[in-house]
Amino acid sequence: MYKRVLLKLSGEALMGEKQFGIDNGRLEEYAKDIKDLYDEKVEIAIVIGGGNIFRGVQAERGGMDRTQGDYMGMLATMINSMALQAALEKEGIYTRLQSAIEMKEIAEPYIKRRAVRHLEKRRVVIFGAGTGSPYFTTDSAAALRAIEIEADVILKGTRVDGIYTADPEKDPSATKFENLTFEDAYSKGLNVMDLTAFTLCKENDVPVIVFDMNKKGNLKKVVMGEKIGTLVTV
User: Nearest CA to 154 among 164, 165, 139?
Assistant: First the structure.
């Protein structure tokens, strides 16, 4: 069983069956799953993407300045973070939202010691606005925050049940990996995280578990030690 975890969620996961924005039903499901884990006295930090609202890379393709687009993407992560915070508090969970960009009316500034203290006091901490710098993804933010707060593992919740040789939604012959090293994942060109996040995890010996977050109960099972998803280690 892991004592302190960092849960990485994609913004797209919040869309549910929608094409854009936030599906309230999916948000409620996630909040209930996190509550089940919270009740086991696990310390939980969360990083969530903003791709259901805006992506900086897409803006760049459309001719917008990449830096401007990335900052807009960071604001999208804050919208998702606030929505998740509200859903968690509805479940009776104490939370704190910390932002890498100052937004004092809605979130605390990110301060490592304060974040760790919140975790120790049984508050779920949500880290918004990525790293606060352009050209870094929320995967990189998740890796960075996990290292800083000394999380035992990064749990990457996706809509597939692990890492495959190819995209299982497009290639029915794709086979799943139960365990991988960072070296193997890199050499095989597997899409686990972006290279910056990947390197941070490898150099700081932070394991990553990729699992299906959309299957009820999976989050708790993973943290309790059941073999679900794919484990990537040094």
Answer: 139
Q: Is 156 helix (H, G, I), strand (E, B) or coil?
A: strand
Rounded Cα–Cα distance for residues 114 and 120 (Å): 10
State how far the alpha carbon of 217 is from the alpha carbons of 26, 30, 107, 185, 203, in Å.
14, 10, 29, 27, 31
Pairing relation of β-strands 176-177 and 163-164? antiparallel
Which comes out higher in pLDDT, residue 172 or 220? 220
pLDDT at residue 216 in the model: 95
The alpha carbon of 148 is separated from its chain's Cα centroid by a whole number of angstroms, namely 15
Residue 45: closest CA among 120, 102, 108, 105: 120
Contact 180, 231 (CB under 8 A): yes
- pLDDT at position 170: 87
Residue-level pLDDT at 21: 94
Residue 209 forms beta bridges with which residues? 155, 231
For 90-146, the pLDDT digits (tens) are: 999 999 999 999 999 999 999 999 999 999 999 999 999 999 999 999 999 999 999
H-type alpha helices, 91-151: 112-120, 138-148
pLDDT digits (tens, 9 = 90+) for 47-60: 999 999 998 777 77
CA nearest neighbour of 7 among 39, 30, 32, 40 = 30
φ, ψ of residue 170 in degrees (nearest 5): -110, -30
Mapped onto helix, strand or coil, the DSSP state of residue 211 is strand
What residue ranges define each of the domains in the chain, with the CATH number in brackets?
A: 4-233 (3.40.1160.10)
